[in-house]
Design brief:
The protein has 13 helices and 21 strands. It has helices at about 15-25, 40-45, 45-65, 80-105, 160-165, 180-190, 210-225, 275-280, 315-330, 360-365, 380-385, 410-425, 430-435; strands at about 5-10, 30-35, 105-110, 110-115, 120-125, 130-140, 145, 170-175, 195-200, 225-230, 235-240, 245-250, 255, 260, 265-270, 300-305, 345, 350-355, 370-375, 390-395, 400-410. The strands form 5 sheets. Strands 1, 2, 3, 4, 5, 6 and 16 form a 7-stranded mixed beta sheet that branches. Strands 17-18-21-20-19 form a 5-stranded antiparallel beta sheet, sandwiched between helices. A 4-stranded parallel beta sheet has the order 10-9-8-14, covered by helices on one side. Helix content is about 30%, strand content about 25%. The protein starts with a strand and ends in a 28-residue tail after the last helix. It has 3 domains: about 5-145 and about 265-330, FAD/NAD(P)-binding domain, CATH 3.50.50; about 150-265, 3-Layer(bba) Sandwich (FAD/NAD(P)-binding domain); about 345-445, FAD/NAD-linked reductase, C-terminal dimerisation domain (Enolase-like, domain 1, 2-Layer Sandwich), CATH 3.30.390.
Length: about 450
């Protein structure tokens, strides 16, 4: 061989591991480098431990609801037990990822990688070179990293990474931000008994989601006790004071808290790899620019997943890896389809969404029909909760095709996955209507909404 490897992958997260495994399956000789634990953000410090924390934070409400069904409980919560059991599960999953690489003959280098030239990867530990390898093709799948603002005292704050390893549960916490990570952790810590103050400088949380989703989630956050401050001044500085944190906002007011968490976005993790020296094009935030084949401006270097800053979703990175390896190593040109990607936000209650928002549909189509329902779930009739479920369909009136489905409520993520198949297949509202409902479920509402809303102009689109 001219090179040590046909493919060398930098980054062993979900996308990188899938690409390495599939390329090897297609007959390529593959190496992969990772300077942290194999499994990446999702498995080690993202969606998996976060979902476990969501489950943990829901039991308090579940115990309360159970009383209406005749159950009584004497319950208490122990934070160290949750952390320990979470760590055991992450260790187990990390072991499975390592086994996957081993079983597929992928050479793992537990080191930091940088590019010496278009075909040479230098591997370093503690800043010292320990090895270097060559590869015909190189794939960068290093993901993203939480953005932390440059303010005085930022060293006293945490991001989502550290939230999974706090030594003790704070009594009061400030969360800055209002994207899906911020609202999920607001629900998590609130559910675990922490007094949560959430700050956001604009008009409504979850920018980019359908306006009805945003309103519904905000209402539930407030009703469950989160101190949600919209149109709020942002944090200007953080000072340690008598064992607590004194947070000063840009307007000059102060808040005393036990912990400050920033969840204000994630940046592509592309720095320090030598990309600029090779002429690999990146954006002003470090996102690697790629074409439809995931090829960078250097022909043999590719990138996928969060480091490209397109769709920061684990299943998208995995699908991109499948398309990349099929094209490059299985002689099956495959283009990634980014239309109608379903997603869930594990707020409390959770969000499930797929397709166009109402505002996007009104911009794209001449006329749209909107179908909505808002109700108290059957589970809460005896449980006593005032929590509501909101469901919504967006329909292109000219073709009757359902182009968007949105839900806030119990099991929204589970329900929207099935609805996403129908939308991806191009199902019409008439076909939704012709589908027999499963009763009694919340999901049946998606096939029983008959009357469209009055035809009103689009709402806020921010």
């Amino acid at each position: 061989m001219r090179y040590n490897y046909d493919l060398f992958v930098i980054g062993a997260g979900s996308g990188g591991v899938r690409a390495a495994r599939m390329a090897s399956t297609y007959g390529a000789k593959v190496g992969i480098a990772e300077d942290s634990r194999v499994g990446g953000t999702c498995v080690i410090r993202g969606c998996v431990p976060k979902k476990l924390f969501v489950y943990a934070s829901q039991f308090g409400e579940e115990f309360d609801w159970a009383e209406g069904y005749g159950w009584t409980s004497d319950s208490s919560f122990d934070w160290p037990t949750l952390i320990a059991n979470k760590d055991k599960e992450i260790d187990r999953l990390n072991g499975l990822y390592l086994l996957t690489l081993r079983n597929n003959n992928v050479d793992l280098y537990e080191a930091r990688a940088r590019l010496a030239d278009a075909h040479t990867v230098v591997l370093e530990k503690d800043g010292e070179e320990v090895d270097r390898v060559t590869a015909e093709k190189i794939l960068i799948a290093t993901g993203g990293w939480p953005h932390m603002p440059d303010i005085p005292g930022i060293e006293h704050a945490i991001c989502s990474n550290e939230a999974f390893h706090l030594e003790e549960l704070p009594k009061h916490m400030i969360i800055a931000g209002a994207g899906y990570i911020a609202v999920e952790f607001a629900g998590i810590f609130n559910g675990l008994g922490v007094e949560v103050c959430q700050l956001y400088r604009s008009t409504q949380i979850l920018r980019g989601f359908d306006w009805d989703i945003r309103n519904a989630v905000a209402n539930e956050l407030v009703s469950k006790g989160v101190d949600l401050r919209l149109n709020s001044p942002i944090i200007a500085s953080i000072d340690k004071q008598d064992g607590r944190l004194l947070v000063t906002l840009t307007e000059g007011t102060t808040v005393v808290t036990d912990a400050v968490m920033f969840a204000v976005g994630r940046d592509p993790k592309s720095q320090g790899m030598g990309l600029e020296d090779l002429g690999v094009e990146t954006t002003d935030i470090g996102a690697i620019v790629i074409d439809d084949e995931f090829r960078t401006s250097v022909p043999n270097i590719f990138a996928l997943g969060d480091v490209t800053h397109r769709y920061q979703l684990t299943p998208v990175a995995i699908a991109e890896a499948m398309a990349f390896t099929a094209t490059q190593f299985n002689d099956t040109p495959t283009t990634m389809d980014y239309a109608d990607i379903p997603t869930a936000v594990f707020t409390q209650p959770p969000v499930g969404t797929v397709g166009l928002t109402e505002a996007e549909a009104r911009e794209k189509y001449d006329k749209v029909d909107i179908y909505k329902t808002n109700f108290r779930p059957m589970k809460h009739t005896l449980g006593g909760s005032d929590e509501r479920t909101m469901m919504k369909l967006v329909v292109d009136k000219a073709t009757d095709r359902v182009v968007g489905a949105h839900m806030v409520g119990l099991d929204a993520g589970e329900i929207i996955q099935g609805v996403a198949i129908a939308i991806k297949a191009g199902a019409t509202k008439a076909q939704f209507d012709a589908t027999v409902a499963i009763h009694p479920t919340a999901a049946e509402e998606f096939v029983t909404m008959r009357d469209p809303e009055p035809d009103l102009p689009s709402q806020v689109t921010e």
